[in-house]
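Flavin reductase family protein
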Amino acid sequence: MFYRPSEGHGLPHNPWNAIVAPRPIAWISTRGTMGDNLAPYSFFNAVAYTPPQLVFASTSAKADREGTKDTTAQIRETGVFCVNIVSHDLIEAMNATSAPLPAGADEFEHARVAKAECETIPCPRAAEAPASLECRLVQIIPLLGKANYLIHGEVIGIHIRPDCLQDGRFSPPDRLARLGYRDYCSVTETFELARPEDT
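Predicted structure tokens:
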């Protein structure tokens, strides 16, 4: 089939949500004047090595947050945030934090997620995450469409759970990813591939 997104797809579910996949999940924690917040975002990736940088997109709004979500509102306020990586054992807690709670509600408490303090920024992190990336905001870029924003951050501190370091490499038991719709996957099988310049 072929379709133009501006004209609709005619399917019961939007295929765009599942075409670019799997997508890693940024479980983002923030702290603002209204309290602590924790929410998952699957439009997320690393974009540079030196200095390490990442981006994620916030794509809708809440009535109590003036045209955006709690996460973006608090990043605008403070200029910092933490990206927590999600493993399969945290999937139920991660899903619980996606609930549209009122602004100011603490998703850490709602989902019973253990909280720890970051080292370089005034922000909480998910204590049991395989890794947590402390970020300083670089820019918030408005995207096409209503309430669509790209948040660009520089990673200035990295926490790695001790059991996720194997022979000097970051090697968590699994990595959770979103496939679109309500579909997820847990990546447990990996392989190495030599680049042409390695031979």
